[in-house]
Amino acid sequence: MNTFAKAFLSGALLLSSVAAMARNPIIQTYFTADPAPMVHNGTVYLYTSHDEDTTVNNFFTMYDWRCYSSNDMVNWTDHGAVASLKNFTWHSKTNGAWAPQCIERNGKFYLYVPIHGEGIAVLVADSPTGPFKDPIGKRLIDSDHIWQDIDPTVAIDDDGQAYLYWGNPSLWYVKLNSDMVSYDKSIGDKGIVTVEMTAAAFGSKPGRDGKPGTTYTEGPWFFKRNNLYYMIYAAEGIPEYISYSTAPAAVGPWTYKGHIMQRAGHLAFTNHAGVIDFKGNSYLFYHDQALSNGQGFKRSVSVEQFTYNADGSIPLITPTKEGVTKSVASINPFSRVEAETMAWSEGLKTAGNSQSGVYLTQINHNDYLIVRSVDLGKGAKTAEAGVASGTQGGRIEIRLNNPEGEVLGTLEVKNTGSWQQWTTVKGKVKKMTGVHDICLVFKGGEGDLFTIDWWKLN
Ligand code: FUB
Questions:
Q1: Which of 74, 141, 224, 254 is 20 to 30 A from 361 (CA-CA)?
Q2: Where are the beta strands (DSSP E) in 313-366?
Q3: In the structure, which protein residues have their CB atom closer than 6 angstroms to any atom of ligand 1?
Q4: How many angstroms is it from 209 CA to the middle of ligand 1?
Q5: DSSP state string for 177-195
Q6: Does domain 337-457 have CATH number 3.30.420.10?
């Protein structure tokens, strides 16, 4: 078991008494932060930054950006690291892959990312999960304050004008051109507009220099809903609240509206919001330090469902372990379910390559995953899974609800010759009808047992 797995396990053991119920944090295989959800074609794509398992120099240790997707808001499919600092050739940073956001325009996906200390850059892809490429070969935002150029947030207004906001502790914006990779240089300072930071706009708090300032700190999340423009942001320094302001137009003037999420026990010293409406519900994504048992440089994305007040204001939202309790769709197990699709797991990691895509790895005895809201229909007779093992193999127990639930069937996995030599294993399952949570529990001897790419019922 590697260092991460051990660290994970100690956190997981603390959580284990509630694991059967816990839905937050929503990703357990990696440390994820700075959530940026994007709704596209009935699916939520969640872009995150990624806190490495090993923190270097007691500071943010972040090399790449990850993507997850969900159709039901309780199960998340891991698409791996979709971009990294290595996507850019014009800088020399080996750390600093901070808070991203992606948006679609005319069938292309634009991923805006800060490289801490190098400013804000953009990548483009034909699919929400990449591959992403650098279309301009230089930083996007040409400013003289690149250390403060972090946390880009982007939205396209109804008239087609796209706005990119960003910044810590100031807030700037540019009007992106329709190509999404350049901006209108005719406004502001060579195209960059500095937002006026007033107490009325962002609440009042002494600045770092002791002079009057505002609560705005970083991590803006900009969007429009029902003719109101919202700016949600991390506020009030460290540890951070999440607060928000609204405006009648994309460029303001902003009016401070107060807190959305206050400080709470398992939150980290930073926080970072992403808000979406999906299938008739509203959701606030944020990050906490629950999984790392209190390590602020090892954060994890969580999500809460909430309801806007009738006047469009946002209620105070409590961070919970339960998270989203109601799925808005069910999983069809009669077509291939990716093994990296799950609501909860313990002890597992994902890996990927161009041949196999993303798969589950570091599977040890008693590790498990839970897939929620699986529609077993009229029942299945057999199950199968795509597996590989370079060692002794093991078995997959298919159980109802949780690791102690009723065993529906077992799949035996033998050595397949190598970790990339994939084969399909099959077994019988008990008939069970209706919608249930399904738990795959992995059993075997010492060490890594096998890897699993997908499973399905027949
Ligand atoms: O994740 C690195 C930085 O921490 C982000 O850019 C900020 O928003 C804060 O979450």
A1: 74
A2: 337-338, 341-342, 344-346, 349-353, 357-361
A3: 33-34, 49, 60, 98-99, 150-151, 218-219, 234, 270, 272
A4: 21
A5: -TTSSSB-TTSTBTTBEEP
A6: no
Ligand 1: residue of 30, 98, 101, 241 to mutate (most ligand atoms within 8 A of CB) is: 98
Report the distance separating Cα 268 and Cα 348, nearest Å. 23
Judge whether 30-306 and 337-457 match in fold. no
The closest residue, in CA terms, to atom 3 on ligand 1 is 98
From first to last of its 458 residues, the chain has per-residue pLDDT tens of 343 343 344 334 334 433 446 799 999 999 999 999 999 999 999 999 999 999 999 999 999 999 999 999 999 999 999 999 999 999 999 999 999 999 999 999 999 999 999 999 999 999 999 999 999 999 999 999 999 999 999 999 999 999 999 999 999 999 999 999 999 999 999 999 999 999 999 999 987 778 889 999 999 999 999 999 999 999 999 999 999 999 999 999 999 999 999 998 899 999 999 999 999 999 999 999 999 999 999 999 999 999 999 999 999 999 999 999 999 999 999 999 999 999 999 999 999 998 889 999 999 999 999 999 999 999 999 999 999 999 999 999 999 999 999 999 999 999 999 999 999 999 999 999 999 999 999 999 999 999 999 999 99
Residue 57, by phi and psi: left (phi above 0), alpha (psi -120 to 50) or beta? Answer: left
Q: How far is the CA of 274 from the centre of ligand 1 (A)?
A: 13
254 Cα to the center of ligand 1, angstroms: 23
Which residue out of 64, 146, 270, 286 has the highest number of ligand 1 atoms within 8 Å of its CB and is therefore the one to mutate?
270
d(CA 451, CA 428): 21
Segment (H or E) for 36: strand 31-40
Q: How far is the CA of 249 from the centre of ligand 1 (A)?
A: 26
CA separation for the pair 247, 229 (Å, rounded) = 5
Domain range list for the chain:
30-306, 337-457
Instruction: Find how far residue 245's CA is from the centre of its chain.
Output: 24
Q: Which atom of ligand 1 is the closest one to the Cα of 49? A: 1
Q: Does domain 30-306 have CATH number 2.115.10.20?
A: yes
User: Could you identify the residue written with the tokens 């947030």?
Assistant: 153
Strand partners, 113: 121
The CA 442 to ligand 1 mean position distance, Å, reads: 35
Report CA(9)–ligand 1 centroid distance (Å). Answer: 25
User: Which ligand 1 atom minimizes the distance to the CA of 99?
Assistant: 6
